[in-house]
């Protein structure tokens, strides 16, 4: 039997590479004669950079940037000098994994560090930037990134806004004259791991704010602030992408990428599968084992296991999903090509540990 091991990271527990190693240990014990193809995956969130560097042979560089709460940290990014392509993973700069549960604050966390990584790529001579969105600790619609790139977001007194999404409710003026001019010469492709809009019931604040430390009251504040930001941006540029699928990715970074960087929003798993040659590798296997930290209804919006299952279904290859826990709506995975779902822990599981279609 030939098996391809293609899990995403298990948030707050294992990287994709560590998950591959753990699965390999199990296979070697249970099926010692099996052959396997290790293929760590990502859909735009943490670990996607590692998958792309492994697949493309890009160089790993490091840059000192501001973390989600302004602390300095070393963030990795990828550089391919032959085709002048930079790989930038938002989670490296302002990922949720950098904060403890008590430190998480969606009201004030910032994407400033992502802008600093973009500047590093521009300084290296990038002609193309692959921007991976997912796993963020932020909910500022990319405001911090814009400020790092020298855009000015001002209140009604002409003062720069403080970091974080909550401050956007005070936005009175958007000044883009100072925005780094080199951005107009770069092609930006954005990998998103969800198809949520910026605001509303399926928006960034309502759906993802709570896991970033937002209370019910905070969610209301953030949703209103991001809607206000979108309105002010529309007044300035004439375009309003708040309802665009994926604009709510990474706390609204999808909105900023499309609006200010001219980026197309692509399903992250599709981009990564193309980069790693997944479809070609799938032709050689009998089984796919994939997984993520939590499988639930949100996974159907473009998370790694579902993207892989859809691809494998086209080729008639069965798919097993390992999930740290199962949440509401996980059964929908069977409609997407998943053959079997196994929860690796009892936490959060109130249905059954093993389910097979």
Tell me about this structure.
Strand 4 (about 70-80) and strand 5 (about 85-90) form a beta hairpin. Residues about 350-355 have low confidence and may be disordered. It contains eleven helices and 14 strands. The strands form three sheets. A six-stranded mixed beta sheet has the order 2-1-11-12-13-14. Strands 3-4-5-6-9-10 form a six-stranded mixed beta sheet, with helices on both faces. It has two domains: about 1-40 and about 285-355, Rossmann fold (3-Layer(aba) Sandwich); about 50-270, Glycerate kinase, domain 2 (Alpha-Beta Complex), CATH 3.90.1510. About 30% of the residues lie in helices and about 20% in strands. With about 350 residues, the chain is α/β, with parallel strands linked by helices. This is Glycerate 2-kinase. Keywords: Kinase, Transferase. It is an enzyme of class 2 (transferase).
């Amino acid at each position: 039997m030939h098996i391809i091991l293609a899990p995403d990271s298990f948030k707050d527990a294992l990287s994709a590479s560590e998950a591959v190693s753990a699965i390999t240990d199990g296979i070697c014990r249970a099926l010692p004669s099996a052959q396997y193809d290790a293929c760590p995956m990502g859909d735009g969130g943490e670990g996607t950079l590692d998958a792309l560097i492994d697949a493309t042979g890009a160089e790993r560089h490091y840059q000192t940037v501001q973390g989600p709460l302004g602390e300095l940290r070393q963030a990795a990014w990828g550089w391919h000098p032959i085709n002048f392509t930079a790989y930038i993973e938002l989670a490296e700069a302002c990922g949720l994994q950098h904060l403890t549960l008590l430190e998480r604050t969606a009201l004030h966390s910032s994407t400033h560090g992502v802008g600093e990584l973009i500047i590093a790529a521009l300084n290296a001579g990038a002609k193309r930037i692959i921007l991976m969105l997912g796993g963020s600790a932020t909910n500022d619609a990319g405001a911090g990134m814009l400020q790092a790139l020298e855009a000015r977001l001002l209140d009604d007194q002409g003062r720069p806004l403080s970091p974080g999404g909550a401050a956007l409710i005070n936005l009175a003026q958007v000044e883009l004259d100072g925005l780094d001019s080199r951005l107009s010469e770069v092609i930006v492709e954005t990998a998103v791991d969800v198809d949520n809009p910026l605001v509303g019931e399926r928006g960034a604040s309502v759906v993802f704010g709570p896991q970033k430390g937002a209370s019910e009251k905070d969610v209301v504040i953030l949703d209103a602030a991001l809607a206000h930001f979108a309105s002010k941006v529309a007044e300035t540029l004439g375009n309003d992408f708040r309802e665009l699928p994926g604009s709510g990715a990474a706390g609204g970074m999808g909105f900023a990428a499309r609006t200010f960087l001219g980026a197309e929003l692509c399903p992250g798993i599709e981009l990564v599968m193309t980069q790693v040659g997944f479809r070609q590798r799938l032709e050689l296997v009998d089984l796919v084992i994939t997984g993520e930290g939590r499988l639930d209804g949100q996974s159907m919006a473009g998370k790694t296991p579902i993207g892989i299952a859809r691809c494998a279904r086209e080729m008639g290859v069965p798919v097993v999903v390992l999930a740290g826990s199962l949440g509401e709506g996980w059964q929908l995975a069977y409609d997407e090509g998943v053959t079997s779902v196994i929860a690796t822990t009892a936490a959060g599981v109130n249905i059954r540990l093993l389910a097979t279609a």
